[in-house]
C-alpha cells in the first residue's frame, strides 16, 4: 500500500470519526426560527428556503428578481413556513444589503440565522484584465456579506444566533478560469475565519459556520462548466440541507461533498499532484 493511499485512508477515517461525533441535528430547533436567506431566487438559496420552510421556520428571502422571490415565498408557505417574506435587493449597492437586514429585523422581531449565499455573475474564462468587474464582484460576493453580518450581529447576539457563510472550494484552493470569483471566496474565508476567533475569544453567543462547497448542480453552475469540467456535480437540495444542519448544530466548518476536504488537506502535502489533477480536470485547448 503506497504512502498516498495510506494518507487518503487516514483522512477518510478522520472524516467518519468527525461525522460520528458531530452534534445531533434537532429539526424541532428550527421551528419558529427567524431566518434570512440571501440569493434565494434559485439554486442553493432556493433550496435553503424550502428546507427551512419544511422545518417550520420564519423566513425572509432576498435576491434581485421580485417576481421569482414571490413565487419562492408562496411555495415556502405551502411547505410549512410560519412566515415567508421577501425583499428584492441588489447586493452591488452599498446601501441595500443593510436594508435587507433591517427589513427582517422589523418583520420578524429579531434574527436567529443569517444565511449568506448570494453571488454575482462572473465569466468562466481566462482572466482578461477586467479589474472593474473584479471590484464589482468583490462588493457583491464579499463586502455585502460583511455589511449584513455587522448589521445583524446585535440581534444574533441576543438570540444566541448563527452566521452561516456559503463559500467554495475555490476559496481554499486555486483553479483556472475563476480568478475574480475565487478571490471573493478567499476573502470570505479570511474575514469570517478571523471573526470566528474574535467572537469566541470574547465569549460571544454568535456561532460562525463556513461552508466549503464543491461543484453543485445549479443551473448557473452547470451552464458554465458543462463540457469543460470533468467532475461530478452534487445536488443543490442536499448541499442546502447540509448547510442548514451545520448552522443549526453550530459547527465551524462544512465540506460538501466529501472530496472537498481531501483536496484542501492534500494540496499542501502534494502540491504538484494536486495541481496536475486540477489542470487535467478541464477540457481546455489554448
TrEMBL record:
One of its GO terms (molecular function) is oxidoreductase activity. InterPro entries: 11-beta-HSD, NAD(P)-bd_dom_sf, SDR_fam. Gene3D superfamilies: NAD(P)-binding Rossmann-like Domain. Pfam families: adh_short. Residues 1-23 form the signal peptide. Keywords: Oxidoreductase, Signal. Belongs to the short-chain dehydrogenases/reductases (SDR) family. This is Hydroxysteroid (11-beta) dehydrogenase 1-like a. It comes from Takifugu rubripes.
